[in-house]
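Cross-check.
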Amino acid sequence: MTVLSADAARRIALGAQGFTEPRAGGDVSRRHLKRVLDRVRLIQLDSVNVAVRAHYMPLFSRLGPYPTDLVDDAAWTHRARRPRMLVEYWAHEASLLPVADWPLFRWRMRENEARYAHRYASMLKDAPGLFDDVLAAVKELGPIGAGPLEDALGLAEGRAKKAPGGWWNRSSVKHACEWLFATGELTTGTRRGFQRLYDLPERVLPPEVLSASPVSDEEAARALMLRAAEAHGVGTEPDLRDYYRLKPGRSQVALAELVAEGLVERVEVRGWPQPAYRHMAAKTPRKVTGGALLCPFDPLIWRRERTERIFDFHYRIEIYVPEPKRIYGYYVFPFLLDGELVGRVDLKTDRAEGVLRARGVFAEPGTDPGRVAAELADELRTMAKWLGLDTVAVGDRGNLAKPLAKELRRR
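Predicted model, tokenized:
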């Protein structure tokens, strides 16, 4: 069995995620977007917008400044000369994934239908025909949001009961839309702001994807585990499984088959308590240089156990922690420098004032605060300019706040 040092495993992981390639510089095109997607395989969506939407940040981390409408066009518009590249579905969490991968999630659509059927039985009893009516309305009016759908279905006539808004108090129409999305009968046609506008898959996905031959559950699991292995470079079976949120029984069988086929090899990584698996095409970079801010939902770090194992970096998102109990802040971006996670920044975009606010800034133990502050200052300025902000302001929390503020004043 091949034995890897922990340092080599870390460099393999960073290379697999695209952090050993130079940033794009200048004009960023669909070619650059595809280059990133070929590595990360999917981009997680999240509603938090305190700094920047989660699906925009991984590309900035790898490419540098780019026009965000590059992602918007790829995900939510279609033109003959610029066909849609991405589609929304539940992959890791709610995610953007290549349109060609849609058939690989038919098993999840079937599982969702079975798993949540009991939740919708009472709704169907109270509002018979609601799902059919929603589909018919979307066919006629889509892409359309849940609110306009409620109006279109004539709620005043009692066909469906509208509840006051809120994430956990959705109307029956919203519930129906989410059910139909989860089972693949609806998808996202486009978004307005961050509001999902539903449409029929046949108006969103290309014909060759919709008419693709059925993929068995076993074939889908192998394909997804292979994609996960490519995106990781090297990882444990739970690491790979988590990328697409597969069940252990399915992922373990798939991984054993990939090993038997010679596509993935089992390796030992010194210091890792579990066996690891390396994609056979994964390269081991000699070194990793440069800096990048990572949003909490970047695929490099979204499995926190792996982040701690590879980088010796304990990281938890503190959005749901009461403010007095937070250690680092509300929405904290780890800072990657020369292949190590060396700091963290609690970021907020103050759009009204045109300021990127670093409310708390922390250097990891054993790092050089002066160098971290200098490199982080450059990255924050670049990020602020990318977001259309005028300046960067530093709060007073954290052991790196004063060095960073000094560095920003110097330039």
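Residues 369-386 form the longest helix (18 residues). Residues 137 and 234 are 47 Å apart (CA to CA). Passed to J.P. for a second look.
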